[in-house]
């Protein structure tokens, strides 16, 4: 272990905290600068806190440095989706095979836990209330301001990692000003508002615990993920503007109540106080932010700072954690020659960031429109059947993304090919509803795979 | 005239200076803040100064407020393209009909002239060396710093216009931080380097004066535009990186000389000192920058600040000047109700900004690859013939963009349709080379227009 190696991480969020553990294990002295106060001492802020869904890529990155079990303590398995129609009827769709699940964790809870981990496993020194004012990528130095004392400090290390989120100060203050740095921030038309569905009075859950609940309504949807305390964190995704079914038109308690009563009747029955709870959480926006390259000089962007996405595939955190896996492998491959590590990281990992974003947007349409569509559900059934018969020839897209380590870019490409095959087979088979699991249909798919 | 009306313009560039005249004529007291020193007092900076090509939209916007003749004094008409092949053979292609031309003007010259115009015709007070540090869009105020004295000033007006270029400080410091503001900066793979081809010793031109010269070479190209003093401003566009024909590999005087000798032999003959002149101007990058919306509160983005583009259609300045035309029309339509003016400006003008950018990128391929392609030249000849026969049914894309007031978005859409028709006709007509102007071919096009 080289005592002299040092690293700075900007941001004590999920990715920054985990990456601290990796760097520490590789012998780096890690210093983290975090803009916000220590959330473990303050009340956890309300607001932007859609629950997170941890899946295979996330667990792999956590387990590789021995911290997965810390997170397992606060994670609730969800084995499938439960769709709620306007009559209150439920349809269940498993996410994967028997025993496979994604895991609901609350953002506040996991944030605090990851900071513990950064300190305990990563020996990281975390400086809270330190805002990054500027950065010199070539030099590996940053200028931070202590927002409590007003003091401005210059800090420097062998390598610097910006894991400071979608609105990364390092990216904004340094990377976005670099010649030939590509960047885009594209907001989608839809915003979201969080709603907390409380537990029953006896502390029990008001909905099936081990599932992600969706109320798909075409152009908008409501979802619910379980919390440890019996409550569900629910999120309404809907266009900001528009003459109907938009946040703009829900501008009174009465309109909110009417909207829920008619659109999500079973939800309204569980939570008749929705009109009063409506403004407990702010209306927030959703954006995809792309960058390239992800490094310059001695600095690299990670997680949301590099590839912030919309939350619809539940892969934002998982993809960020996987950045740690990728960077760690490159560190070993190039024996910590950071010029080489960063150059390969940008080139190799960027297509996966792009694919993660494209998949996230695609899954928005799936969740909003298709999960309630009989053709879509039939297609998923046929795929599952075929995949069961020929597991080495077909892994459904959702499983590739969620339960495998297949690169996002490969999963995206394969998924689009599979979708075309399934659409062709379904279109060319009369009465497909009756013989969806017949040898004839399976044979057809097999042929098309070639 | 309402004495109380006030406007701030950030940026005393081409668009800002012209817009000052419009506002002044509408009764506004105009104050301009410009980051750079007064270029009329300093030596005109070398560097990023590709000559500009003024065409119809630009003239229209200038003439509407009576300043076109000021610019005519320094403009050189170019009636067509002259292509130079590797043997030094020349091919001429007119830009439009008899009497139509685009006009070469030097950036430095026109910049200085436009500042004169802003002061004389716009009664604008221009504050040089004032950098915009921040802006409050809702309040209509900006904070500027006098870079000579260090003084920081807050300025406020009824309306504020950011005409401060591709790297707009107002956009960066204010708009890019707004919730739901979409923005992208995408650099193309190619950079450019300017080369000044001097006049002959007797002051005469070394190339045909009234033309834009192109040395198209597939993946890269050299162009030359005439200046008033007998020189030509030449620009080499080429990929930054790559194993051959890239700026990266031209890293010695010898390599530069060899490159010009073998690739642009007729140019090298005129300018054998190219190896020594190579570094007179810096290597620069090219980007497309998109934004939306183009307004917020009391502020609007104009010109490159809203829709910076690559220079290949010669429409950057013209499109910026046309923003003045559009805003001026909306001011009249809405009787200077700026909320309405700005809202309509964003919605109506944005598709034209996008189309201008798409067209610019498209014309890069045209100039680089196609202007030397016999099929392309034949297609242009057929189009010109058809357009001559049926002027009300077909205006070639280049003419729509350059010599008409058709909206960029309409021109782009129509141009793509026309291109498809021409490709179909040419592919389905055997020996098209021989009967390209036959009634049969004309009839076919007529049918396809429908």
Describe this structure in words.
The structure is a homodimer of 450-residue chains. In chain A, helix 1 (14-25) runs parallel beside helix 10 (316-333) and helix 2 packs across helix 10. The N and C termini of chain A lie far apart (51 Å). Chain A has helices spanning 14-25, 56-63, 68-72, 107-120, 169-173, 253-263, 265-270, 274-277, 304-307, 316-333, 338-368, 374-389, 397-403, 408-428, 432-435, 439-449, and strands spanning 6-10, 29-33, 52-54, 76-78, 80-84, 90-94, 102-105, 125-127, 130-136, 141-146, 152-156, 159-162, 182-197, 211-216, 221-226, 232-239, 283-292, 295-296, 299-301. Chain A contains 16 helices and 19 strands. Helices cover 39% and strands 24% of the residues of chain A. Among the domains of chain A are: 6-47 and 107-184 and 286-362, 3-Layer(bba) Sandwich (FAD/NAD(P)-binding domain), CATH 3.50.50; 373-449, no CATH class. The first copy, chain A, has a 7-stranded mixed sheet. The first copy, chain A, is globular. The first copy, chain A, has 450 residues and is α/β, with parallel strands linked by helices. The A-B interface holds A 172, 176, 179-187, 240, 285, 287 and B 172, 176, 179-187, 240, 285, 287. Strand 13 of chain A pairs antiparallel with strand 13 of chain B, so a sheet runs across the interface.
């Amino acid at each position: 272990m080289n005592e002299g190696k040092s690293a700075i991480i900007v941001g004590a969020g999920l990715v920054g905290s985990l990456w601290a553990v990796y760097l520490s294990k590789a012998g780096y002295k890690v210093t983290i600068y975090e803009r916000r106060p220590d959330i473990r001492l303050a009340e956890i802020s309300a607001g932007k806190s859609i629950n997170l869904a941890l899946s295979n890529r996330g667990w792999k990155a956590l387990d590789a440095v021995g911290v997965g079990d810390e997170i397992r303590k606060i994670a609730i398995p969800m084995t499938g989706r439960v769709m709620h129609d306007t009559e209150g009827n439920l349809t269940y769709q498993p996410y994967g095979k028997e025993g496979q699940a994604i895991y609901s964790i609350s953002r506040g809870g996991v944030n605090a836990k990851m900071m513990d981990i950064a300190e305990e496993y990563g020996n990281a020194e975390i400086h809270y209330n330190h805002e990054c004012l500027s950065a010199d990528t070539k030099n590996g130095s940053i200028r931070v301001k202590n927002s409590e004392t007003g003091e401005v400090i210059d800090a420097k290390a062998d390598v610097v990692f910006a894991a400071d989120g979608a609105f990364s100060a390092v990216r904004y203050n340094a990377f976005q000003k670099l010649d030939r740095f590509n960047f885009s921030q594209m907001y989608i038309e839809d915003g979201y508002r969080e709603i907390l569905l409380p537990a029953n009075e006896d502390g029990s859950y008001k909905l099936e615990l081990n599932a992600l609940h969706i109320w798909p309504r075409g152009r908008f949807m409501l979802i619910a993920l379980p919390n440890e305390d019996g409550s569900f964190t629910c999120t309404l995704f809907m266009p900001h503007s528009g003459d109907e079914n938009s946040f703009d038109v829900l501008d009174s308690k009465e309109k909110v109540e009417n909207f829920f009563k008619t659109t999500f009747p079973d939800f309204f029955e569980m939570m008749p106080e929705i009109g009063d709870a409506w403004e407990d959480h702010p209306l927030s926006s959703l954006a995809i932010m792309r960058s390239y390259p992800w490094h310059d000089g001695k600095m690299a962007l990670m997680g949301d700072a590099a590839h912030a996405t919309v939350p619809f595939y539940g892969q934002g955190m998982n993809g960020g954690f996987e950045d740690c896996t990728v960077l760690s492998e490159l560190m070993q491959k190039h024996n910590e020659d950071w010029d080489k590590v960063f150059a390969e990281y940008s080139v190799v990992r960027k297509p996966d960031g792009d694919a993660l974003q494209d998949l996230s947007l695609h899954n928005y349409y799936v969740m909003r429109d298709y999960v309630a569509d009989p053709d879509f559900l039939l297609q998923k059934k046929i795929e599952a059947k075929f995949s069961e018969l020929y597991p080495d020839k077909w892994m459904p897209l959702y499983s590739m993304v969620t339960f495998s380590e297949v690169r996002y870019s490969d999963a995206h490409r394969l998924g689009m090919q599979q979708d075309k095959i399934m659409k062709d087979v379904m279109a060319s088979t009369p009465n497909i509803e009756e013989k969806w699991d017949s040898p004839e249909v399976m044979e057809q798919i097999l042929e098309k795979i070639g």
